Amino acid sequence: MTTVANGVNVQALLDAREVLKSAPEAAQFVWRASSKWQNGVHSTTTVKEFFGLGQEQTHRNEAVFDADHPEVFAAEDNGITPIEYLLVGLAACLTAGVASVAQNRGIQLRSVEATLEGTHDIRGILGADSDVRNGFNDIKVTFNIDADASKQDIEALVAQSQKRSAVFDALTNPTNVTVEVA
Amino acid sequence: MIERGEVANSWRRERWDSFRLLTPNWQSRLPGLHYEGPDPDGYMTTAEITEFVERFAKLSGAPVRTGTDVTSVRRAGDGYRVTTSRGEIACRTLVIASGACNLPTVPRFAGAVPASVEQLTPFGYRGPGLLPEGGVLVVGASATGVQLAAELRRSGRPVVLSVGEHVRLPRTYRGRDVLWWMDASGVWDQRYDEVDDLTRARRLPSPQLVGTPERATLDLNALTSMGVELVGRWADVRDGRALFSGGLRNVFSLADLKMERLLGTFDEWAGRRGLGDEVAPPERFAPTGVPDSARWQLDLNSGEIRTIVWATGFRPDYGWLEVPVVDDKGRLRHDGGVVDSPGLYALGLPVLRRRRSTFINGIEDDAREVIAHLAHHLAVRR
């Protein structure tokens, strides 16, 4: 099993799981982002600091994300649309899960690619039809995985990665969201 | 032996009318007592189980004090003081055999369900006739949930079944009861100290099985073909609306993959044993069919659903146990039935010492080992 090299330090994750079983307070994380309006529907959001393991933490580098709307929405397209960021998050989370589970199960990965499609009826956000929801109707993720494993084992990797995915859970289950004016 | 009601009390009072055991009759065996009736492959009704347990009570001659409720157990000296509805008992050792299913569990958001919808647990459910007319939302797709969903659907009611993680099994595999395979291939003999993730093994929901004379499979595909509507795991209630998880496909995949893997281990075992002629050829089952568009919300005020049946599991009740041996999840801290307090033991809990621990045929070996420990404890403490 140790001969498999997917670049995931599974031992550190398994150790953390054991430690956090008896120290649930250290498992409480807060992820943060702050955004600034630029012009039109263009905004930039920066992510740098977060809280976890009982103290403030910092990413090695600050990350800045531009969000805008495409030209077909009569906007300048300075960045991807906000709802596309959900696809980015889901793809990254499921892919990380596949790599971690594969490492833990002793499966060597050669390539993992996913394509995501979220179907969206924009009549909802335009207020054109009150029966249409604002968000995605459906999201479809298709993985193409080349690995030293049977098709069934690969399907099990993908299933387990969904089972332990933060973003999959956040998208498939309701979350309380509070928006205030400071 | 202290029994709050009569012998076989929970079988008499805490099961619905159509209930049958999941295990075939031939697997109902207790020390010195085997099924000897005409239908070894059938499944006992509650009346038959009650009769079976009563026979064992007579045969074993165990001194059962019926109608005696234990209200507290406390540490006292080098033993325990047991307070009952009929007085106190002092003992040096004590075996907790009150089971894992004393109370139905219901999620917290049940309190947010509109009052116009009736709510039931399996303890309150007897049969479809006692429910109001109209739609039923059954929550949970383990043995209880799939059985009640099927029965309610057959009564003519529209039934929606909320499905989380579950264990899919065919009733028969290669011509034999699937529980014959679990027994014969040694899956049930796997010991608690050999299981990879014991916490998970102990929390495993009951498989989607039903004991019927037809030995029919009752998986989600069977329910769909009966007209039961499947929705995702019930996540919350908001503004009188039930919100279901959009992750239904993945719980199907997980259950299908686990079943395939289990059937694969049966095939390997049969191959090694050279059973090719004694059992039918390997079978594979269609994947769980995914609804075209599973609903992820349901308006509980619309009148569509008149009754909710919570088949969301059970938990033990240790409210009477005044010894600090229960963890923060309400589970007894024990190592193979040896509880974390001298002279205190447990029997009849999930994967207590092996995977068969909670089946009627699983108690014998567990009891022998736990009682050997108990006898040793008494001997060295004397």
UniProtKB/TrEMBL annotation, chain A:
Transmembrane segments: none annotated. Pfam families: OsmC. InterPro entries: KH_dom-like_a/b, OsmC/Ohr_fam, OsmC/Ohr_hydroprdx_reductase, OsmC/Ohrsf. PANTHER family: HYDROPEROXIDE REDUCTASE. This is Osmotically inducible protein C. It comes from Planobispora siamensis. The lineage of its organism: Bacteria, Bacillati, Actinomycetota, Actinomycetes, Streptosporangiales.
TrEMBL record, chain B:
InterPro entries: Auxin_biosynth/cation_transpt (IPR050982), FAD/NAD-bd_sf (IPR036188). The keyword Transferase does not apply. The keyword Cell division does not apply. SUPFAM superfamilies: FAD/NAD(P)-binding domain. Keywords: Oxidoreductase. One of its GO terms (molecular function) is monooxygenase activity. It comes from the Bacteria. PANTHER family: FLAVIN-BINDING MONOOXYGENASE-LIKE PROTEIN (AFU_ORTHOLOGUE AFUA_4G09220), FLAVIN-CONTAINING MONOOXYGENASE. This is FAD-dependent oxidoreductase. It comes from Planobispora siamensis.
